[in-house]
Amino acid sequence: MINALWNNLDYAASIVLFLIGLYAVIAKDNLIKKFMGLNIMETAIFAFIVALGVVDGGDAPIMGEGARAPFTNPIPQALILTGIVVAVSTTALALSLVIRIHKQCGTIEADELRELE
Amino acid sequence: MVLWPHWLVAVIIIPLTGAVLTPVVGRDRPKVASLWSLGTMALTSVAATMLIIRVAQEGPFSYMLGDWARPYGIELRFDEFSASVAIICLLGLLALMFSYRYVAASIHESRIPYYYSLLLLNLTGMIGFVVTGDLFNLFVFMEILSLSGYALVAISGERTAEMAAFKYLVMGAVSSLVVLFSVGLLYAVTGSLNMADISERLAGVTDRLPVMLALAGMAMAFMVKAALFPLHIWLPDAHAIAPSPVSAILSGLVVKTGVFGLLRAYQIFYGAGNYDLTGLNTALVWLGAISIVMGAFFAIFQEDIKMMLAYSTISNIGYIVMGLGLASQYGMIGATVHIFNHALIKATLFLGAGALIHKTGYRTLTDLRGVGKSMPLTCMALSIGAISIVGIPPTAGFLCKWYIALGAFQAGQPFFGFALVFGALFIFVYYIRMVNSFYFQQPTHPEILSVGEAPLSMLAPVLVLATLCLVMGILGRLPLSFIEPAVLRMLGTFGG
Amino acid sequence: MKKALVSALLILTAIPLLLAVGQLPPHGSAKSPAYEHVSAYYLEYGAEEAGAENIVTDVILNYRGFDTNGEVTVIFTALAAVMGVLLLGRESRHPVEQPTYPPSIVVRFIVRLLAPFIAMFAIYVILNGHVSPGGGFQGGTILGALAIALTLVLGENEARRLIPEGARPWLQAAAPLTFVGIGLAGLTDVGVYLGFPTVETLTWVRTMWLLMLEIGIGLGGAVIISSIFWTMEGER
User: Fold this and answer.
1) Which of residues 82-101 of A touch C (CB under 8 A)?
2) Buried-most residue among B249, C32, C58, C197 (CB within 10 A)?
3) C212: burial class by Cβ within 10 Å (0-12, 13-18, 19+)?
């Protein structure tokens, strides 16, 4: 089993990164840190998906002169292009909410905010 | 009847175009924005009607975007479950009508065109979610509806609203990521992103662990979106603090997309034929039962009327998920029709409550005492909604809960049938509180008696919905027999 | 205490996750189902059927164009969301004249000198997306970032003039509208939404439509990113 995991080290690393991000989301109090954790999780998932498409010794999937098989898989790259846009959108909205919360409550620490409720 | 195949694309593209043009059209003219969005939804409803007529006559059909064959292109697939576009369009129209007066009073003027844009985008996302046949497309539409949902909760600008929206955003974004992770896993083992294609290929996969992980991931993520215990903590604040038409859409439709996602996951895995789903089913049944009782229990103690309704939503989602988990024919049919019926009932209640709050300015049951005398039509509609949700015949809530209870007995687990009855008793208690407060208590604030009835643009949707609660109760057999072939098809491939 | 509990839970969760991931098809092999099924078809036929040599562009604009349609809607939703959450008055009424901490003269000079070249590079990336890495959204982001850099250096009121007030909502809606437009054109021409002509004689139509899509996405993306930044900045 360790051997299988060593072969798929990229996947395992992205899982660990995902869990680190999840820890930040749950355990950190500052709102900005919570949502940095979210960004780390998003990056981990994108890394996982792109790693799915890697081929040993592969070329970029661009035809034309000088292109030789094997090519890396184009589908995961298309998936994460959309994924990154989604992540940016979520980031923009989350930051806007933090700006407003800060303006109205004066703090962005979750425990202080809970007391204000 | 022009049964043009392109209606399937139109039903997504029309609200999408309407939504992106709303800030253009409605710039500095909030009334125009309102009418524009109403017109867009009306057109979408026409498209939705065409689609439902076709599926009722011919059964499920597909549309290949870009003319690429499955699985090389994206497929839109309309089956009986996708007929949910009907309720999406209906509630969308009524919520937009209700918003005409409501937002002018509660939302800053410069934000109003964006409110309508976000609401249309939310509806577009949901329509796309239920008609697509491609797993990654599902994720994209889920993000559209989620993002617009988070923003709509915070749009009133109140402090509590923004905090509720942030909590909702964090939990929702994490669950969306888990869905993306599961999609990646399923792609890795099958090589395809089309739901029907994945279903076929899953049968031949030898290493089961990644597939089970994908299923667990999707189940957990959709449980967060559906606010199933114990992942429900984002819901009460978000639904109670949002503007009332938004609460109606969130509780009636958006939260159901979680259930719908579970349904699509079931379709994929049941279709593969050789997967053992009893673990998931057991978990759903237990968590559903706990949600029913816990949601109803907490609702009894709420003073704020919208908080009460929000906990009631958690309870009803429990019914639906429990019905799905029972994996028996009656249970599933009852559950899927309850998606539709509960949407009607909850929208009646939230819009009615919104009308009360708009006219009186009060939100708690104590403050609203005696309002039955000054706003008789609205309170009558709310009472009809209350009776429906308890499940007394001949209202909309009765038949589907009856079917779910039958499903429990059919699956050989009568204990859960009793949980259902137990929950209904709790629900009865808190709705009696509400009716009591409206009609039979002395008013805490005497000026309540001189408040007039709600304006027509707000009253009409509430009355229409209340009437539909009664009508769908009497015509209850219709949706049940409509859904039956889809459920049988799904369970049949599993041999269960 | 809470942190220790959360860490313990997460380490426990890691075990089944790592086990499952170990069982995935081996990393980097060309025999995995992911590589052999749909991707193989794309790699083999993509360049002639779909009209671009960059297979990734084929996938996102042609085979899975509807996903990209959804993606530009998501970024538009982000704009509408930010506006809905932050707006408290008409955008143009901002009393801020100078940036609060004006950057040094060196920075200002370099940014203003480089701006046209950056813009040219961004346009190159947008237009060249179908023969080399790049594409609509990539170039659009560069343009958006350029607008942000110029705002930081020139001050908000100067930079806002880059995108005229009246045209702004149209430009923000540009990306989804371009998609719907091309999609409907495909409907009338090929018979299916987002269909592209595959006939030999009409490949120029296909290339033209792909280019228009790229430009629409790029322009729309750039305007949306800049607008989000300006709205957020106005809250200082």
Assistant:
1) 82, 85-86, 88-90, 92-93, 95-97, 99-100
2) B249
3) middle
A15 touches chain B (CB under 8 A): no
Flag if C38 and B191 touch (Cβ within 8 Å). yes
**How close C110 comes to chain B (CA, Å)?**
36
In a domain, C61, yes or no: yes
Query: Average pLDDT, stretch A80-92?
Result: 93
pLDDT value for A82: 92
> What pLDDT does B62 receive?
85
Instruction: Identify which of B71, B121, B191 has the shortest CB distance to residue C36.
Output: B191
- Polymer length in residues for chain B: 496
Instruction: Give the torsion sign (CA, B27, B33, B36, B41).
Output: positive
B69–chain C Cβ distance below 8 A for any pair = no
User: Whole-number mean pLDDT of chain B?
Assistant: 86
B433 in Cβ contact with B357 (< 8 Å): no
| B193 in Cβ contact with B184 (< 8 Å) | no
Which among C2, C27, C131 has CB closest to A11? C27
SS (H, E, C) B458-488: HHHHHHHHHHHHHHHHHCCHHHHHHHHHHHH
Is B177 within 8 Å of A98 when comparing Cβ atoms?
no
Q: In this structure, which amino acid lies at residue B146?
A: S
* Residues in contact with B463: Cβ distance below 8 Å, sequence separation at least 6, in sequence order: B377, B381
Burial B150-171 (b: 16+ CB within 10 A, else e): bbbbbbbbebebbbbbbbbbbb
Q: How many domains does chain C have?
A: 1
Q: Is residue C9 part of a domain?
A: no
Q: How distant, in Å, are the alpha carbons of A85, A91, B158, C39 from that of A103?
A: 27, 18, 11, 49
| Residue A1: predicted pLDDT | 63
Structural domain boundaries enclosing C77 = 53-233
Shortest distance between the Cα of B316 and any Cα of chain C, in A, equals 29
- Closest CA–CA distance from residue B174 to any residue of chain A (Å): 7
- DSSP reduced 3-state for C150: helix
Which letter, b or e, does each residue of C169-198 get, where b requires 16 or more Cβ atoms within 10 Å of its Cβ? Answer: bbbbbbbbbbbbebbbbbbeebebbbbbbe
The span from the CA of C215 to the CA of C137, in Å, is: 9
| Nearest alpha-carbon partner for A97 in C173, B152, B230 | B152
Domains and CATH numbers, chain A: 2-116 (1.10.287.3510)
| CB contact at 8 A, B355 and B94 | no
Cα–Cα dist B215/B189, whole Å = 13
Q: Does C15 map to a domain? A: no
Tell me how far apart the alpha carbons of residues B119 and B92 are, in angstroms, rounded to a whole number.
8
Look at residues C173, C216, C176, C213 and name the one whose alpha carbon lies nearest to residue C196.
Answer: C213
| Residues in chain C with pLDDT values less than 70 | 89-101, 235-236
Spans of all domains in chain B: 276-496
Q: How many CB pairs under 8 A join A and B?
A: 75
Question: Which parts of chain B sit beneath pLDDT 50?
Answer: 1, 495-496
Strand partners of residue B487: none
Residues in contact with C23: Cβ distance below 8 Å, sequence separation at least 6, in sequence order: A4, B207, B209, B210
DSSP single-letter state for residue B155: T
Separation CA C3–CA C1 (nearest Å): 5
Beta strands per DSSP E along B258-342: none
What pLDDT was estimated at residue A40? 95
Q: In B188-295, which ranges are E strands?
A: none
**pLDDT (tens digit, 9 = 90+) per residue, C46-58?**
777 777 788 888 8
Residue of A nearest to B184 (CA): A49
Looking at the partner chain, which of C28, C39, C81 has a beta carbon nearest the beta carbon of A74?
C39
